Amino acid sequence: MKFDLNENQLLVQKTVRQVVQKEIAPIASETDKTGSFPQENLKKLAAADLFGINIPTQFGGIDADRFSFVLTIEEIARACASTALIFVAHSFVSQGILIAGTDKQKKKFLPLLAKGEKLGAFAVHEPNSGCIHTAIETRATLEGDYYLVNGSKFMVTSGGKADIYLVLVVTDKTKGADGISMFIIEKDAPGFESGNPYNKMGLNGASNSDLFFQDCRVPKQNLLGKEGEGLKILGAIVQSFIMFGASAISLGISESALEASIKYAKERVVLKIPIGSNQAIQFLIAEMAVKIDAARAFLYSAATNKNTEGLDALKVKLFVSEIAVDVTDKALQIHGGHGYCKDFPIERYYRDARGLTLHFNTTELLKANIGKTLVGLQLL
Ligand SMILES: Cc1cc2nc3c(=O)[nH]c(=O)nc-3n(C[C@H](O)[C@H](O)[C@H](O)COP(=O)(O)OP(=O)(O)OC[C@H]3O[C@@H](n4cnc5c(N)ncnc54)[C@H](O)[C@@H]3O)c2cc1C
Questions:
Q1: pTM of the full predicted structure?
Q2: Confidence at residue 380, expressed as pLDDT on a 0 to 100 scale
Q3: How many whole angstroms from 243 Cα to the centroid of ligand 1?
């Protein structure tokens, strides 16, 4: 299924594809095996100005639209979902500062993020909060010109590798959800530390680590928006932008799994015929192709439609991430025992796709919040 792209979108897609095919695809398997942070990939994406994709030109970005952002991530994820995940986390920060930052914050941080001189990441979840944002415990108390931040964050993508973090913190416990705020915290802030990267099942290059704040001194001008606006800002970043990025990772993985499966079905010969001659394999391929087309159509139309609402973004992420799990499962089946071995990329696609249903808004949280919205209840 083909979609019309305008000149700018085509240019962005072509630029990313070139970088991805030349620089990122050849080392994707190695990145997964070693779990090393793909610093070189990030440098190449930055050199192609892609880190500034969502940032206005006045701050050094290329000011592309949301659809171009989706196309960029989809292309990166086709080769290396870990790099795509790091890219989405980075964009979370620039998008947050764009939505809620003061002029001073925009001038200070956006040019560095646009050029990739500083890497961004977000720290929302905590060991005890799970996926429920209102359950966070990390506290910030104002002392003169600084907030003192105390607490920890769980499994942050690019944790310890990134330079600038958007961190969700409680500033007034008595106010519940209205007492939660968002801060820009720099890596060199006194009292900031990161843990060792988790040994994960997939998305191995994304270096997920815990963050620790012990009387961490954060200048009061690093508060994003006003005190108590943390969840509002988080919702705006996630629902207007980041759910689309996360979905594009799942779409990119699914597309690569299908491509590899078609190739394998034609090349693998059993009983002197390619396995693709068997109807059982054709059915799997047909189901994968139809589901991917539906996922792409849903994601692209939501990303381009001006009337898309926050609820639509949640629906897209739920749909596309679950399809990626299904599609990569079928791809593994087509590859048989060979696909279960690390000589083929299929097992990596399968592991990476699985992570996207756990990352940030889990499948259950998405279902709960979509259902609650539809029956008129407050979101989790
Ligand atoms: C690859 C990856 C990257 C990540 N990157 C980041 C990052 O950059 N920044 C960050 O802040 N966090 C990040 N996380 C953490 C992630 O957001 C959390 O893992 C996620 O929110 C789930 O929290 P939990 O692991 O504590 O699970 P839990 O909250 O303990 O949930 C366990 C299970 O119970 C379900 N569940 C929990 N509460 C409810 C409920 N009320 N209703 C229905 N079901 C419920 C969950 O859906 C899940 O199935 C990342 C995680 C992964 C896997």
A1: 0.98
A2: 79
A3: 15
Q: Which of 80, 361, 362, 380 to mutate to test the pocket of ligand 1 (most atoms within 8 A of CB)?
A: 362
Domain range for 315: 232-374
Residue 284: its pLDDT value, please?
98
Q: What is the pLDDT of residues 162-195, one digit of tens each?
A: 999 999 999 999 999 999 999 999 999 999 999 9
Q: Are residues 312 and 218 in the same domain?
A: no
Task: Work out the average pLDDT over 246-253.
Answer: 98
Say how many domains are in the chain: 3
Distance 67 CA to ligand 1 centre (A): 27
Are 342 and 276 contained in the same domain? Answer: yes
Flag whether pLDDT at 1 surpasses 90.
Answer: no
CA dihedral 81, 85, 86, 88 (to 10 degrees): 130
The Å distance, Cα 27 to ligand 1 centre, comes to 29
Nearest residue (CA) to ligand 1, atom 3: 359
Q: What is the pLDDT of residues 38-96, one digit of tens each?
A: 999 999 999 999 999 999 999 999 999 999 999 999 999 999 999 999 999 999 999 99
Q: Alpha-carbon distance 261 to 16, whole Å?
A: 24
How many CB atoms sit inside 10 A of residue 282's CB? 13
Q: How is residue 193 written in tokens?
A: 């530390």
Q: Answer yes or no: is 380 within a domain.
A: no
- Residue 142 binned pLDDT confidence (cut-offs 50, 70, 90): very high
